[in-house]
Amino acid sequence: MTTSTPTPTLPTPVVEPRTRFHWPAWGWSLIGVLAVWLCIVAVRPVQPFDPLAQALSLAPFLVLVALGQMLVITLGPGNIDVSVGTVVSMASYVSVGVGAAAGPVLGIAAAAGAGLAAGLISVVAILVLRVPPIIATLATSLIVQSATLLLADANRASAAAALRGFVNAKVLGIPVIALVVAVVTVVVALVLSRTRFGLSVLAVGQSPRAAERAGIRVWRVTAITYLVSGGLAGLAGGLLAAFISPSTVLGSSYMLDSVAVVVIGGTLISGGRAVPVGAWTGALFFVLLSGLLNLVGWSVGAQNILKGVLVVAVVVVSAAATGTGRSSLARLRASLTMTAKKKRNIHG
After folding, report:
1. For the whole model, what pTM was predicted?
2. Lowest CB count within 10 Å: 73, 172, 237, 275, which one?
3. Contacts for 98 with CB less than 8 Å, ≥ 6 apart
4. Cβ(36)–Cβ(285) under 8 Å?
């Protein structure tokens, strides 16, 4: 009787799943930065890295405002802070006025505090009076603008020399203010990804009702977000007063630019996704774009038209890529179909 020896079975090789590369949400704005920079170099080839150095000096102030605007927009449709521009202007006078009497550090703190106060007005209007956010922040903007005019009449001082030195200081050719704002950006990114508040902001932006059912206090998240937006705009205004000088129109372009930067940087205008890195790539893109358009002789009005067109284009492309536009169209069709069925049942 012969016995057959079993054939040894070879272990099945484990195939490692291939990791799929995901294009970052801020990738297109980074390509835009490089493209605009190359165009500037082509128009003015002398000292090609000067435009980037100048952009790094101007962009941090816009990034600060954009980070706050990003958090507000992430809360979902209808959330936008249109008061940030006037807050920047008001905070510039607050920073200079308080700084002349109590020192530049307290001046900057007072500027941020003024921004928080403006944010508090918006919070009361939105949560207590139930005013839509865009109308509430518009009302705040009018109040802040009136306060700015009063401060401008009473204040003729300039920023302290120490603060001007800090804002214009460089380390290895990199502006110190850019490094500081980079740290702020990292903190915002960590808050969004690692803290309960940050995750709550994303959850509210994706679905306020679901977030509320999950135990998230939507009103508290909304209040903190608008306060942070106001505080960051105030901080930007206080620092900008030392970089340029206080003015009633100092922040006039920051409302449109902050929204444009946020959208170009990859944050979803429909809410639920924030891209802090995109605030930098978007800000650098717009600063370089403004430099290029000034170089070729475009007016400010024409530049704003181009910015508006870019924002609309990015929103449309983003809606198509994420399915937001398709889902909205599907809901509209479903609503129209349901209405038609009800009419047939009534007449039938």
Report:
1. 0.85
2. 172
3. 106, 107, 110, 111
4. yes
